Amino acid sequence: MKATAIIVAGGSGERFGGETPKQYQLVAGRPLLSWTVSRFEQAVSIDRIVIVAGEDFLLYVNNHVVNPYGFSKVAKIVPGGATRGESVKRGIDSLPMSTPYVAIHDGVRPLVKPADIDAVVAEAQKHRAAILAAPVTDTVKRAKDGLILATLDRRNLFLAQTPQAFQYDLIKEAYQKGNQEGLEGTDDAVMVEAIGFMVTLVPATGPNPKLTRPEDLEYITMILERENRG
Ligand code: C5P
Predict the structure, then answer these.
(1) Residue numbers of the domain that contains 221
(2) Which of 83, 89, 103, 220 has the least C-beta neighbours within 10 A?
(3) What's the pLDDT score for residue 20?
(4) What's the Cα-to-Cα distance from 161 to each of 56, 59, 145, 146, 178, rounded to whole Å?
């Protein structure tokens, strides 16, 4: 059974600055979010896409991100909330209980490989919860007030990325319980971890940066332009 992608793009991009939210920046001639959506169009494990966007951008997304590119899997565009977690929850709640799996993805990660999306969904189909992650290559220190408190063993450290895929009823329950307890995570797996469930890690096979600061845009643009030159 295939998965529904929930692509969250409801942020205002405060750290990025500028008038246009970062997910709509033109990159290689197209709004960045449209590149992200096209990765999920290409992934065979995905049969439906829900885009979560800010209230004021619903029409924009329809007219400038979806329609010009003829995406066939985009089923709806739903309004987001004040935090990433709220936006994800709104995406989850917009789907019927019969949904088998969801793959939740940051709209600002346009480079994710379709094969990596499929690998995460396949693991979620086996283990109910799986996320894409990158091994840590730098040495990581825990510090306070500019002083090192500990050096962590990087063999046990991973950077959580998206997509993060789950059996639908598991992630729905995790978000409901997390909300009741006031848990606000920076990813989706943490909600599932909080209800005592083990989440499987899938190593990313390619770069999958999250557009956060202006300098990230240069790298993302370079890769997309190179890919589209063929
Ligand atoms: O800002 P952050 O890096 O956490 O954003 C990750 C993703 O979550 C982005 O694609 C952003 O648009 C989305 N988001 C959202 N609703 C919010 C805040 C962030 O959909 N209120």
Answers:
(1) 3-229
(2) 83
(3) 81
(4) 27, 28, 28, 27, 20
Residue 34 to residues 79, 126, 167: CA-CA distances in angstroms? 17, 30, 26
- What gap in Å lies between CA 132 and CA 222, rounded to an integer? 23
Nearest ligand 1 atom to alpha carbon 107: 10
What is the CATH classification number for the domain harbouring 154?
3.90.550.10
Q: Give distance in angstroms: CA of 8 to centre of ligand 1.
A: 6
Q: What is the pLDDT of residue 16?
A: 62
Total number of domains in the chain: 1
Tell whether ligand 1 has an atom less than 6 A from the beta carbon of residue 25. no
Give every CB contact of residue 9 below 8 A, 6+ residues apart in sequence: 21, 23, 33, 36, 51, 52, 53, 54, 57, 61, 80, 107, 108
The minimum-distance atom of ligand 1 relative to the CA of 14 is 1
Q: Could you report the average pLDDT of every consecutive run of 10 residues in the chain (230 residues)?
A: 97 70 93 98 98 96 97 98 97 98 98 98 98 97 98 97 98 97 96 98 97 93 90
Ligand 1 close to Cβ of residue 82 (< 6 A) = yes
Q: By three-state DSSP, how is residue 18 classified?
A: coil
Residue 161 near ligand 1, beta carbon < 6 Å:
no
Query: Which tokens go with 191?
Result: 């909600």
Is residue 89 within 6 Å of ligand 1 at its C-beta? no
Cβ of 4 closer than 6 Å to ligand 1, yes or no, is no
Q: Count how many Cα atoms sit within 13 Å of the Cα of residue 64 in the half-sphere of its side chain.
A: 15
**Which atom of ligand 1 lies nearest, measured to the CA of 9?**
12
Q: Does pTM top 0.85 for this prediction?
A: yes
